[in-house]
Fold:
Amino acid sequence: MNHDGRASIIRTALLGVLLCGGLIAADLLTKLAASKLGSREVVLIPGVLSLSYIENHGAAFGIMQGRQWLLIVISAVIIAAAVVFCIRRIRDTRYRYLRVLTVFLVAGALGNMIDRIMLGYVRDFIYFKLIDFPVFNVADIYVTVSAVLILIWIILHGDPEPGSSSDGE
Structure:
């Protein structure tokens, strides 16, 4: 591999790490701000959207309550698989968008994992009153939206033919 190829790989990896770090910071800062709400509710759109802080000791929709270590292990496995995918496909430009979505998925998983490890629960605060949707946070948005878009990408593109990798970004 030539110098330009290595520089491109390093640049791509660094951008991924910086994006992931920025997304995690945004998630943790919103959680910190939300934790200052205490038990009061802040109505953003009456009858539709509000901020309502809760401490979630489970996973999505309140499942697996009190099983923080299992959730941490599951998150770690997902994060490891996502990182391995990104490393293996870093030179293949056809996976560029999928790598970006994977960064969002990893950032969301890490944001909630940090809460679980540091606090023993995840801080949730966004509440869609209109449909009485479970309270969630920014990391949950990263995970949910990226997972759905990754599935759509896989359905539309599948796995490209082996050996037809294109270099560079």
